[in-house]
Design goal:
28 strands, UbiD C-terminal domain-like, 9-stranded antiparallel sheet, 521 residues, Pnp Oxidase, Chain A
Length: 521
């Protein structure tokens, strides 16, 4: 199942009665958020919402000709369909089967070998000369971000934010692109051409930004010139960009898989568009931008082209009502200057909100957890299952079940995961035995509360935490807690006898199964 465009996905959802068209006038300031928040917290995430009579508070409260789509991935079914499956485990099992054929030696190698293992050369991004995303091209004085229905999510937000855009940048050393989902705050209604670029310190986009700054500082040195010469092989005009600007493109919409891939925590130098092609079983078509040397999905609804000047002072960004359920306070981020806006003639503006869970991002996070679990298991085959609950905002708690085979096995898993990718941000890791259903939080609470001795089984360490963690005593650095809730062995210093679980004998179970229908229960 592959969707050619966001329009096609909307039609599909409407056929499945998973979309509601709203004709009542609704403002982009707070009102879309309030409606979506109520819907997303209803059973199973509610419906996708298409607002067709949008009052744009950024543009003097005029009616926008552009409808707004929100909560499109805000249910398990819609997330599955966006990935072309009826059950997310189909994707996980496909990856599991593929990587088992040629297991490489390290976790990163496993991720990088995914294209080879899958034999998906045909899914490599394909360049095309034109795309519907460029039916309308706005440059110069025609650029006006306030004409688009960009929402203000929460009352104390610093302004209006583009929340569902995927940002493309390139590594200045090797030309390999990265796609990441970073919010953009519209900065100046008078200028109408600038946003703040929310490149958190741990994100790939931020690393590109820092590397450009390093190259600037050494631009006159011979080693920097050598780097520029090598970069030419990757079609980057580094002699210009090192001196001046970082080309950036932000796309919104297209096949929802292309949006999802931008949110995935892929390793450095792994192309998100290749991953999207693998998921959709068809290559992503890319069209050259109009004003910068980057390519964007040809089927996108809207593309914002521009640059970040690494020499320009940072600006205030925020506050922003974030996925933690708290406001992220004002901080300093780079300025993104818009050089062109292109879009479809009849475009849909996709957006999302975050806040107190559960919300749309929760279903995306659950899909990421299930899809990437097989890759974690390749490095740690003793891991049987993993649950990163939506309620804990994904980086606050990870529950892991393992097949325990030696003393302190749980502590080994904790230490390993605190050094792996996005899992390094986990503030708390709970490890349980393989027979515990980690998806059943009631069972987990029962096991943990019964199986631990607090002094013996709770360990503390310190390391990186998510940049949005407001409780950390220092920015990006905080303490972490590990809880070993496995059964304890004598080799671990437990000298008493561990009691068995209460279970009915099988003969009695079969007897009651036979008479159950006669009991009137």
């Amino acid at each position: 199942m592959t969707f050619k465009s966001l329009h096609e996905f909307v039609d599909f959802l409407e056929e499945r009665r998973e979309l509601v068209r709203i004709e009542e006038p609704v403002s982009t300031r707070l009102e879309i958020t309030e409606i979506c928040d109520r819907v997303s917290k209803s059973p199973n995430g509610g419906k996708a919402l298409l607002f067709e009579n949008v009052i744009n508070h950024n543009n003097n409260n005029q009616k926008s000709p552009i409808p707004v789509l929100i909560n499109m991935l805000g249910s398990q079914n819609r997330m599955n369909w966006a990935l072309g499956v009826e059950d997310i485990e189909e994707v996980a099992n496909e990856i599991r089967d593929l990587v088992k054929k040629q297991p490489p030696s390290t976790f990163i190698e496993k991720l990088k070998m995914l294209p080879t293992l899958a034999k998906i050369g045909s899914y490599t991004p394909k360049k095309v000369s034109s795309g519907l995303c460029q039916e309308v091209v706005l440059t110069g004085d025609d650029i006006d971000l306030t004409k688009f229905p960009i929402i203000q999510c929460w009352p104390k937000d610093g302004g209006s934010f583009i929340t569902f855009g995927c940002t493309i940048s390139k590594d200045p050393d090797n030309g390999i692109r990265n796609v990441g989902m970073y919010r953009l705050q519209v900065l100046d209604k008078k200028d109408k051409k600038t946003t703040a670029m929310h490149w958190q310190i741990h994100k790939h986009g931020s690393r590109h930004f820092q590397r450009y700054k390093e190259l600037l500082r050494s631009a006159n040195k011979s080693d920097a010139l050598d780097r520029m010469k090598r970069a030419e092989e990757y079609h980057l005009d580094m002699r210009d960009s090192v001196k001046k600007k970082i080309p950036i493109a932000v796309y919104l919409g297209g096949d929802p898989v292309e949006t999802f891939a931008g949110a995935c925590p892929l390793p450095d130098n792994f192309d998100e568009f290749l991953f999207a092609g693998f998921l959709r079983k068809k290559a992503v078509e890319l069209v050259p931008c109009k004003t910068i040397d980057l390519e964007v999905p040809a089927n996108a609804e809207m593309v914002i082209e521009g640059y970040v000047d690494p020499e320009e002072p940072l600006v205030d960004e925020g506050p922003f009502g974030d996925h933690t359920g708290y406001y992220t306070l004002i901080d300093k981020y780079p300025v993104f200057h818009v050089t062109a806006i292109t879009h479809r003639k009849k475009m849909i503006y996709p957006t999302t909100i975050v806040g107190k869970p559960p919300m749309e991002d929760g279903y995306m996070g659950l899909a990421i957890t299930r899809i990437f679990l097989p890759l974690v298991q390749l490095t740690f085959p003793e891991i049987k299952d993993m649950n990163i609950p939506v309620e804990t905002c994904f980086h606050n708690l990870a529950i892991i079940s393992i097949k325990k085979t030696y003393p302190a096995h749980a502590q080994k898993i904790m230490s390993s995961l605190w050094g792996m990718g996005q899992l390094m941000f986990s503030k708390c890791i709970i490890v349980v035995d393989e027979d515990v259903d980690v998806q059943n939080l009631s069972e987990v609470a029962w096991r943990v509360s019964n199986n631990i001795d607090a002094r013996r089984d709770i360990v503390f360490t310190e390391g990186p935490v998510d940049a949005l963690d407001h409780a950390a005593p220092r920015f990006g650095i905080g303490s972490k807690m590990g809880i070993d809730a496995t059964r304890k062995w004598k080799e671990e210093g437990f000298e008493r006898e561990w009691p068995p679980d209460i279970e009915m004998d099988e003969a009695t179970r079969r007897r009651i199964d036979e008479i159950w229908g006669k009991l009137g229960l």
